[in-house]
Design goal:
12 helices; alpha/beta; 39% helix; binds pyridoxal-5'-phosphate; 4-stranded antiparallel β-sheet
Amino acid sequence: MIPVYEPSLGKEELENINEAMKSGWISSKGRFISEFEESFAKYCGVKYGVACSNGTAALHLALTALGLGKGDEVIVPTLTFVSTANTVIFTGAKPVFADSNQEYWCIAPEKIENKINRYTKAIIPVHLYGHPCDMDVIMNIAKDNDLFIIEDAAEAHGAEYNGKKMGSFGDVNCFSFYGNKIITTGEGGMCVTNNIELAEKMKILRDHGMDTKKKYWYDRIGFNYRMTNIQAAIGVAQLRKLDTFIRKKRKIAEWYKKAFANLDKSRVIKCHPEMSWAKNSYWMNSILIEDSYPITRDNLISKLWKRGIETRPFFYPIHTLPMYNKGDRFPVSEELARKGINLPSSANLSREEVAFIAETISE
Ligand SMILES: *Cc1c(COP(=O)(O)O)cnc(C)c1O
């Protein structure tokens, strides 16, 4: 079975884990945590990193530190992982959905503007499956309307917009290091920001809201969203390999695109896009199964499974999930979700495996 994703782990990770174990610092203190925070923030071109227990916690920390809550509205794409919207609900604010861009699948800037009203406080652009959002346009909308930007970069470690790393645009930007993300710590997340006050606030919030000078004194309701030193030990080793992973993933994308060139040209399959301003991380190498493909998308998924190839349908748009469904329609997101599949995408895929997958789909 070729899985849709598997982590690439080696002896470097194991050595760091051993060091953390031997030091006795296996909880949320220890040298790997600050090293991971500093080196990851630096990688993104941002000053401060705040490591936490997962990507969802990172989003919740960011939104809380920015002071979002009851009465506020936050604009999010409907075509994303569910926690982008759930974390807005956690704070008491309301997620307001926007449709996707047809060409590159992320939130469409022109669909953001008509969602803005006097309650709107923030936008969460999500770099879906590794493709950056159109950040210049989104940053201008935010500036004109005095809104916060929180990048959900959980799928876009190392991706770039006009040569600038994702995670370096918003007020606070969030990453996940879940087992199937581009780099992993098992479970894990990080907020990065250039604002030292926000960084300090998030460090307090992840540690129950405890005062940094007066131990066991709390002046707000906080969370336990700390990352362990063992997770950070894995993260430090993974980060050193991130550029190698991205290079390989871009190579894999190139192999898929070459193999699908004819089907793409005849509009039977649409390959994963990359706009002129984008460097796609290709977290998930994804394709659209167009209506002219002889069998349905779901039928294709089950046929591939029988041949030993695991694939995954795109996310269900969040506005269609029971908790969020108010009967609104977002036609572009709905169409993408109906047609899209994620192909096997791990950095350790071989050329032969990619050829086998592409041949099976073409056949
Ligand atoms: C993975 C992911 C998250 C959440 O990360 P967890 O670490 O699983 O909590 C949030 N947003 C997006 C877009 C993701 O892909």
